[in-house]
Predict the 3D structure of the following.
Amino acid sequence: MSFVAEPDTPLPGQLVIDRTIDGDAVTLVLRGELDLTSASLFEQALVEAESSQPQKVIIDLSGLEFMDSTGLRALLIARERAQETGHGLALRRGPRQVQRVLELTKTLDAFQFED
């Protein structure tokens, strides 16, 4: 299942989210930009993924082109909810510019990474 801000072909930079289910894990593959304009779409996809009560949610950042502080906040909220509900949460590393946001904000160690 895919989540796209617009139903047509995504625009450059627009966030597209593909969801896959593998056993008890749900993976959200993010492509485009996770920022102020798309964070609500990500949160909607995350809530829907969590509704199936998976043992683990994996957020794949490898297809992101950009992430701002709003995107980082959405990831931190996902981590808090995972701790509250007891499901695992792991990130797959993003490109250098996305990882740099985590490094500069000193939140890199707040997440478990799965490569």
Observations:
- Strands lie at 2-4, 16-22, 25-34, 56-67, 88-92.
- The longest strand covers residues 56-67.
- The two ends are 23 Å apart (CA to CA).
